[in-house]
Amino acid sequence: MGKDKKLNAEQKIIEAAADIFETKGFEGARMQQIADKAGINKALLHYYFRSKDLLFEKVFLKLAGKIFLKFIETFNIEGSIFDKIEMFLQIHQDLLYKNRKFPIFFFNEITRNPDLMRKLMLNLEISKKFQEITKQFDQEKKDGIIRQDVEVSHLIVNIISLSVFPYIGSPAIKEIMKEFDLNYEQFLDERRTMIAQFVINSIKV
Amino acid sequence: MGKDKKLNAEQKIIEAAADIFETKGFEGARMQQIADKAGINKALLHYYFRSKDLLFEKVFLKLAGKIFLKFIETFNIEGSIFDKIEMFLQIHQDLLYKNRKFPIFFFNEITRNPDLMRKLMLNLEISKKFQEITKQFDQEKKDGIIRQDVEVSHLIVNIISLSVFPYIGSPAIKEIMKEFDLNYEQFLDERRTMIAQFVINSIKV
DNA sequence: ACTATTTTTGACTAATTGGTTAAATCATAT
DNA sequence: ATATGATTTAACCAATTAGTCAAAAATAGT
Predict the structure, then answer these.
(1) Which of B189, B89, B157 is nearest to A164 (CA)?
(2) Is A107 found in the same domain as A131?
(3) A122 and A33: one domain?
């Protein structure tokens, strides 16, 4: 039954590939480097996954699927619309914090190959969730809890923009903050509560 | 004196390289493809710019410098803080609209090579401008025009997040909107006025 | 213990790619 | 025109890289 290293070469490959692809991107990643990191022979990569393209697609969809799933789960939060926004952002921030390298990797890859986004959406049932949340928001708008001119699609994009961009732009923000003797980590931490405040201030009547 | 094609091989190379690098990224770009697009021999690339790295760095700094310069100019806008935000966003949106491919390219490249950001900042005097704007904002905060709890660094990042992210996430947003029969172009257009409203609503007392 | 099947490897290949070189072409001044 | 220097090219090179293959090693079934 082998030692702990016997935990599936296939699994080890996927983990190593995820890490290399995430840091180097598809074009920058090297099959040899993935093999080294997984502690196996390069030929084994092709034995399990026929080509670099197929390995990448599998890894990408698995990784992005996992993260999007957690992301979508937060749509089920109960409570007032303001509670929802606060809770959603809390969980969303945690998710980003633990997967810092993911956003720029994800958006870069789907830009170079938009088909990946289509495939990802087929796996998940993302649009149904969006439809639900849209209805909920529209209802709360009718109830006069939030401003009438708040458009749900924009609100969602705004919330995601505010939380994701600081990770995408991290090297730029870090460099600029260095000039001001400001601390990027602290900056991220402050945003945890700030973003929700900023959004709620903006949409409440 | 030649015909119009005589406008500098060097210039033609830079334009072609900018286009290829922007769409394919450094790793994905091919020197041969750049040569083809510039309508010259591949060896000429190395004659003018010694290597792919040097060509890339020159093109990146030139392109990013040009865009950042326009970006920084907008900090000089006069008027009330709300006017400033509106004007800034107007110009910023135009700039993004005309350079759609730039944001994801830029942030991806500085992520893979943060040193580029440092070099870019040396060329421009970006931090001085940020310092000026910070003082201005702080003053208007003391004057009680905007909420006391508005932190300037966060406000700037928020504004940039809201305007830049929709371009970075374009393939994702497009795909999701397709499911809802929503139009991405119209969505971008709506944001031109929406973002300023969203920000101002949030920071006004 | 023996056989069949699966997993893993080392050595190899074909294609791509960044980069070089020496010769050819063009431009300019004398 | 012609010598000089800058520009451009075709042909080539060396290194890297994804992918292959046949043989070895491990695993499981009998």
Answers:
(1) B157
(2) yes
(3) no
